[in-house]
Design goal:
TTHA0281-like; 14 strands; nucleic acid binding; TTHA1013/TTHA0281-like; Trna Endonuclease, Chain: A, domain 1; tRNA_endonuc-like_dom_sf; 3 domains
């Protein structure tokens, strides 16, 4: 492996894991203060810790920040970072040579080594045995079979930006109970195009204060907040949300779609199910009508549609019921993810509509029921 991947591997060996709240496993790294991830299993926790380390290393190199010394690798990596010119422009930062080098090595590591390290492929003495053709799991094939067209969204950002959005959405989704009050403040500020906000933590527990302040730090580091301070004397947060529209759209609803997608992906991978997953595709009807949905997922035996709502959801229920009928899927395979809605209300909605209703906490359980 290369210097960068060796260094990341050495950091991961120093990781510490401990039981956390709600049955989660927490992972920390003593060498990097403030780094904390949570997972439902050791594998998930370790994967998230590795993702956080990749992002931390990229940012540290770009900013020429000191790295922990591990066998001299820290100094060598800093020398590599000096080959590039730091920039304060986020768009310019993500295309710097250092980040490209990091991501290329990490991708190569996951493929089994750097391309230049692989031996040339050898010709096969005999043609490979033909495997039986498996049923298609492509969403587009299914949509075509029911007589509809499909337009796939191409709104994905670069890899560094994607990691940032995943980090924010995972943090918010997994800790929403403690962050709900702050989120409402952020959402109001976002709908106004950014600006200042305050949030009191006078009645919050020490644990919740820690979660809220950690989240604000994440938002500041990733550019969502232009400024942020916490007054321990007043137990109050003072912040200013960025005026950038794309980030504000993410906070007002896009984050929940991304979080739901990650939960679906994890559930499918845990079962080793072949699958196809499309975010924000547009269904096209023969008469020209077009409807965007949040998420479509297909396995060999199931076709799922997910809709995520952080606010009012009543107005869209009938429309999505018709779409589910047009897709010829059972009502329960239409999953409505409603942020912060109590389980009693979710059960009442399920009895009324027949859909699967979940909130950010129960989505995983409801998916397991559907996939069983």
């Amino acid at each position: 492996m290369g210097l960068l991947t060796d260094y990341l591997a050495a950091l991961l060996k120093q990781a510490q894991y401990r039981p956390g709240e709600g049955g989660y496993l927490e992972g920390t790294l003593p060498e990097i203060g403030g780094l904390l991830v949570r997972g439902r299993s050791f594998e998930e926790c370790r994967e998230r810790l590795q993702n956080e380390l990749e992002l931390w290393l990229a940012k540290s190199l770009l900013a020429h920040q000191p790295l922990p010394e591990l066998g001299g690798a820290g100094a060598a990596l800093q020398q590599l970072a000096l080959e590039t010119t730091p920039s304060t422009n986020p768009t310019e930062q993500v295309i710097l040579k250092t980040v490209r080098t990091i991501l290329e090595e990490l991708r190569a590591q996951r493929r089994g080594g750097r391309p230049e390290d692989r031996p040339p492929s050898q010709p096969q003495a005999q043609p490979p045995r033909q495997e039986p053709k498996r049923p298609s799991t492509r969403v587009s094939d299914y949509v075509s079979e029911v007589g509809l067209g499909l337009q796939v969204s191409r709104n994905g950002g670069n890899e560094v930006e994607e990691k940032i959005l995943e980090r924010v959405s995972s943090f918010l989704g997994e800790r929403f109970a403690a962050l709900e009050g702050l989120y409402e403040k952020l959402k109001v500020a976002a709908t106004k195009g950014g600006g200042e906000f305050q949030y009191s933590l006078a009645s919050a527990s020490q644990n919740d204060i820690g979660i809220v302040t950690q989240f604000c730090t994440v938002l500041k580091e990733t550019g969502f907040l232009k400024s942020y301070t916490y007054s321990s004397k007043q137990r109050r947060i003072y912040g200013r949300l960025t005026a950038e529209g794309r980030m504000n759209n993410f906070l007002t609803g896009g984050w929940l779609e991304r979080y739901a997608k990650s939960v679906v992906q994890l559930a499918l991978r845990r079962r080793n199910l072949p699958h196809d997953l499309l975010a924000n595709p547009v269904l096209i009807y023969p008469n020209g009508d077009r409807f965007e949905v949040d998420l479509l997922a297909r396995t060999p035996s199931k076709f799922l549609m997910l809709e995520c709502k952080t606010g009012n959801y009543d107005v869209a229920l009938e429309r999505h019921q018709r779409i589910a009928q047009d897709l010829r899927i059972p009502a329960k395979q239409l999953i409505y993810v409603l942020l912060g809605i109590p389980e009693q209300v979710l059960d009442e909605l399920k009895n009324q509509w027949g859909f699967t209703f979940a909130n950010e906490k129960t989505l995983e359980v409801e998916l397991e029921k559907l996939l069983t």
